[in-house]
Write a structure and sequence with these properties.
The chain is mainly α. The chain has helices at about 1-25, 40-50, 50-65, 75-95, 105-125, 125-130, 130-135, 145-170, 185-205, 210-225, 230-240, 245-255, 255-270, 280-305, 310-314.
């Protein structure tokens, strides 16, 4: 009887210990098992592993076109093919180019920036699963995996921006140099929201694998919900004609992807006038950027909360 009671007590203590361990926050320790003070927080921890982050970005880029004859030329070929498809079908067959000067540059600039956002979000969403071997074997700041995917997307974006710049120069569609400064807030806005979405979805995707497929669908809807293959003035006119609620139009205009695309148009497309953009575009982008910064913080909190069981779920 005494032995049975003692065994039951040990089982209860063991279960209680497991419960406390599961509830304990995820923390960094050294080789001896002592907690390391997080001076500078997670940013400092990732910065200390910047070389590993660089190697992960390089690996991601190399794996894209491994054993391919053309290699990184596909980085240029693929967006050009997509651009030509939209330009011919929408611009010529459906006559979307009518009334839009330098429609080719307008279309290519929108596709380039949206491509960055889509590749960031889609790549980051599957990053934890793609690196499950590392997650289960060694300690690393888990944020490094979605950041590596975002870094790879950023490299591809810069290559495509070079192509866009050359095309705009050839077609004499570049605006004044001061207008090209819109490049920076536009890209910054997309990076902030791409990072927030990437951190959140990468963590949730470990538990709900359908998230990565849902993300692909949402990216398709987001592209058609942004003024890429049509102009902002077309949407404004359609809302007035159909007498739709004003608040619904404001939601569309203040969508961060819409704001980023509009700003990117101002940076590379000289065919637009002030009437082709919503009023106070800069202020709208600033407010959206502040909201996005808060969303990055909240997304990281969710990521930190969920990462404790990544190894078990994988």
């Amino acid at each position: 009887m005494f032995t049975l009671t003692r065994t039951m007590v040990e089982l209860v203590e063991k279960n209680d210990r497991y419960t406390r361990l599961e509830a304990a926050p995820f923390m960094r320790t050294d080789a001896a098992g002592f907690r390391v003070a997080a001076r500078g927080g997670k940013i400092r921890e990732i910065f200390e592993r910047r070389e590993l982050l660089r190697l992960l970005v390089r690996r991601d880029l190399q794996s894209r076109y491994r054993d391919s004859v053309l290699g990184f030329l596909w980085t240029i070929i693929r967006p050009i093919i997509v651009f030509l498809m939209y330009y011919v079908v929408l611009g010529k067959f459906l006559r979307a180019a009518e009334g839009v000067p330098d429609f080719a540059i307008y279309l290519f600039s929108g596709l380039t920036l949206f491509g960055l956002f889509a590749e960031m979000v889609v790549g980051a969403t599957g990053s934890i699963l793609a690196n499950s071997g590392l997650v289960k074997k060694i300690y690393l700041p888990r944020e490094i995996f979605p950041l590596a995917s975002i870094g790879g997307a950023g490299f591809m974006f810069l290559v495509q921006c070079l192509v866009l710049l050359v095309a705009a120069i050839i077609m004499k569609a570049l605006p004044a140099p001061v207008e090209m400064l819109w490049f920076f807030p536009s890209v910054a806005l997309i990076l902030v929201y791409g990072l927030a979405a990437g951190l959140f979805l990468s963590a949730v995707n470990v538990y709900l694998r359908d998230v990565q497929y849902l993300t692909d669908l949402l990216m398709m809807l987001a592209m058609w919900g942004s003024p890429i293959v049509y102009t902002w003035t077309m949407v404004s006119s359609a809302f007035k004609t159909m007498q739709l609620p004003t608040w619904l139009f404001e939601i569309y205009v203040n969508n961060p992807v819409t704001l980023g695309v509009l700003g990117f148009h101002r940076a590379f497309w000289s065919g637009g006038t002030n009437a082709d953009y919503p009023p106070d575009l800069g202020m709208r982008m600033l407010i959206a950027g502040l909201v996005g910064t808060v969303l990055v913080y909240l997304a990281h909190r969710v990521f930190t909360r969920l990462q404790g069981n990544f190894a078990q779920e994988l």
